[in-house]
Amino acid sequence: MRSLQTRRLSRILLLLLALLPVALKSSAVTPFTVSSTCVQDSVFLVIRQPAGIDSVKWYFGDPPSAEKDSSDKIRGAFHVYQQTGTYTITLVAWRSGVRDITTQPVTIVTPVIFDLGPQDVTLCEGGTMTLSAPVIPGATYLWQDSSTSPDILVDTSATYKVKINGCLVPDSVNVFYTPIPKIELGPDLVLCSGEQLQLDATAQNCTYLWNTGNTDPVQDVRTTGTYSVRVFPKGCAEITDAITITFTGPPYPFSLGPDTLLCPGESITLAPSVPEATAWKWSNGATTPSISVNYEANIWALVEINHICNVVDTIFVNFNRLRKLNLGNDTTICKGNFLVLTADFGNGLYRWQDGSDQATYYVTKPGNYFVHAQIGRCESSDTIHVSFNDTLRVNLGPDTLLCRNEVYQIPVVGAGGAPFKWQDSTSIPQFVARQPGIYSLTAWNACGKSVDSVRVDYHDCECTVHFPNAFTPNGDGRNDYFRPRYRCPIEQYTLSIYNRWGERVFYTTDPQIGWTGRVKGLQADLGTYVWIVDYREVYTRIPVHKTGTVTVLY
Question: Which of 233, 291, 347, 541 has the fewest CB atoms lying closer than 10 Å?
Answer without folding.
Answer: 347
